[in-house]
Amino acid sequence: MVTPILPLEVSQALVKRRGKTLLGPVDLTVSQTGFTIVMGPNGAGKTTFLRTLHGLERLSKGEVIWQVPLTEARLRQAFVFQTPIMLRRSVRDNLTYPLTLRGTKKAKARQLAEDWARRVGLGGALDQQAPQLSGGEKQKLALARALILDPDIIFLDEPCANLDGRAMREIETILLDACDAGTRIIMATHDIGQAKRLATDVVFLMHGHIIENSHAKDFFAGPKTPQAAALLQGDIVE
Ligand SMILES: Nc1ncnc2c1ncn2[C@@H]1O[C@H](COP(=O)(O)OP(=O)(O)OP(=O)(O)O)[C@@H](O)[C@H]1O
């Protein structure tokens, strides 16, 4: 049996750059299942927080501990950036590339690429050059490219920023399906409606600190902090 990589234990994690604290110290346990939405105003540290969990940020102090060795944990997680970077190749090649890098046979990789392209609505675009796709299509390709590796956990940094309602809904459906299939999801968003539609729990950040970490139902029914209450009311939170 494969050892689960979760729960993830974040202990006193601190990220400082040039004397400025960007994040922390933060403590958090990421459970094995669920859809965590990370909220907070601009500059609160959401991106830094996601990057820290994923292992992209050098910690000034503290630890991020997976249940498996780090080299293995790295291979079993994925990150989707707000502005995805596409290979200057076809949609098909963008999808097969991460697989062949990991040793998947060419025919199998092509098969999976075709399956995933279809699942995200890009079945008709397999031979199109990826950089020529629309913003929403690029985001769907970025998602497929992450999910094709069947990660245990996926981090997403505002994947729907600048997308219209239809593209957003399509991406949300893909994410909810992945979550139902057992992929742990942690996603930053500014969109309160989206947070309500997707979250099982919410991490609310202010000035690099987690000031709330609650079940989504509790958070949206009655946030514990005035900052979160203000944000949910549509007030400006700084
Ligand atoms: N490499 C860096 N060096 C110095 N400061 C940084 C660095 N990266 C981020 N910051 C600062 O850290 C703070 C947190 O940034 P971060 O991008 O994590 O916030 P955010 O909540 O994701 O913001 P937004 O909602 O605007 O995307 C900001 O004040 C930012 O300017």
Protein described:
By secondary structure, the chain is of the alpha/beta class. The protein folds into 2 domains: 8-85 and 151-233, P-loop containing nucleotide triphosphate hydrolases (Rossmann fold, 3-Layer(aba) Sandwich); 87-132, no CATH class. 38% of the residues lie in helices and 24% in strands. Helix 3 (91-101) packs across helix 4. The longest helix has 16 residues, at 165-180. The mean pLDDT is 94. The protein binds adenosine-5'-triphosphate. Adenosine-5'-triphosphate is lined by residues 17, 20, 22, 40, 42-48. The site of adenosine-5'-triphosphate has 11 residues, from strand 2 and helix 1. One of its GO terms (cellular component) is plasma membrane. One of its GO terms (molecular function) is transmembrane transporter activity. Keywords: ATP-binding, Nucleotide-binding. Residues 8-232 form the ABC transporter domain.
Unreliable segments of 5+ consecutive residues = none
Q: Alpha-carbon distance between the termini?
A: 47 Å
Structural class: alpha/beta
**Considering DSSP H and I runs of 4 or more, what fraction of the residues is helical?**
25-40%
Bound molecules: adenosine-5'-triphosphate
Q: Biggest sheet: strands, sense, closure?
A: 6 strands, mixed
CATH superfamily of the largest domain: P-loop containing nucleotide triphosphate hydrolases
> How many domain regions?
2
Taken as a percent bin, the fraction of beta residues is 15-25%
Instruction: Indicate the radius of gyration in whole angstroms.
Output: 18 Å
Number of helices: 9
Question: Class of the largest domain, according to the CATH hierarchy?
Answer: Alpha Beta
Average of the residue pLDDT scores: 94
GO molecular function: ATP binding; ATP hydrolysis activity; transmembrane transporter activity
GO cellular component, one term: plasma membrane
Pfam family, one: ABC_tran
Keywords: ATP-binding, Nucleotide-binding
